[in-house]
Amino acid sequence: MIPLARKTLVHEWRRFLPAMLAVAFSGLLLLMQAALVFGIFGSAATYITASDADLWVGYPGTQSIELGRPIGPAARTALLMDPGVARVEPFAWVDGDWRGPAGTGGVSVFVSGISTEPDGMIFSDVLTAAQRASLKEPFAVIVDRADLDKLGVPIGGQALINGDLVRIVGVANGIRALGGVNVVASLDTARALDNDTGGTEVAYYVAKLKPGADADTVAARIDASAHGYAAWTASSFARRAVFYWMFQTGAGLGVIFLAIVVFIVGAIITSQTLMGAIAGSVREYATLHALGVSLGSLRRVVLEQATWIGVCGLVAGVLLSLGLTGLAKLQDVPVELNLPAWVACAALVMGIALVSGVAAVRALRNADPALLLR
Q1: Gap between the Cα atoms of 51 and 205, Å rounded
Q2: Positive or negative: CA dihedral 328, 329, 333, 337
Q3: Sequence-separated (6 or more) residues with CB below 8 Å from residue 77
Q4: Quick one: which of 226, 201, 236 has its CA closest to 82?
Q5: Are 47 and 183 in contact (CB under 8 A)?
Q6: What is the pLDDT of residues 293-321, one digit of tens each?
């Protein structure tokens, strides 16, 4: 009886096509929602994930990178004295007010003061050695290419940050910030732009560990003797920042709520369409039942049909999602999907299809041979 399910799908494809399309678009909605959620909130951890530091040290209780507060040089000393630390680098974080040409108004920016050495840890994945060297020029800054229009200044143009004149010497991809514009500068420039502390303190120190050193162990060791600062591994600090934006802010909860609504609507539409397609074959099932095929065998046929509809719809949804995410990246829209997200969305879509199939099995109760006489 099982081949009957596949043959029915092939010969009656027009009847099942709406169900496959419903599954495909349900999968597309789920995957795109997941891509946007991970892309938007993942940008909160860009400073960490785009850097190759193993350890971050900042103000105790800091939940996200932009919430950092100045810490004293004792943190740097503690890192240098730890036997597992290979080198240490300061990372200055300054809130800034960008004033560009007339018409763009003021823009809130985050100034990241980083090392200009070729092997600098901060933004090591997105900045080249030449770009770092260009930051040695006093008051030189680099911004994300996608933020140029928002800032209203081209490459080589000048603007004011906190009243000081800066010049854009280059652009990079992948340094967009969540909630503002990220401006990368040298440590000296960032300190000069800092009107609060005068540049005497920095918000973070990052560290590279020696080969074989365990990041969790070193972080615990630093924390044990810390006064006025705390240590996190890069992965735990990135996770902390993403979770903060996802679950502790109104924007995050709104996006997650929308994702749940999309899932529920997609599940209802898909299940109803699939049940309708299978219920439309009730006369054929009644014929088979009259010929002696048991209801148990018919149930297995229905479940296999639901499985194949789910698989075909899922493949179509994945192909559409790949195309749309590629298009989104070309337009600098923050989208990101990792393997667990792909697997989770695929499992949800197949779950919707199978549950719909189980629900459609109830229609077989109407597959009474007497139906053929009506």
Answers
A1: 13
A2: positive
A3: none
A4: 226
A5: no
A6: 777 787 788 788 888 888 888 898 889 98
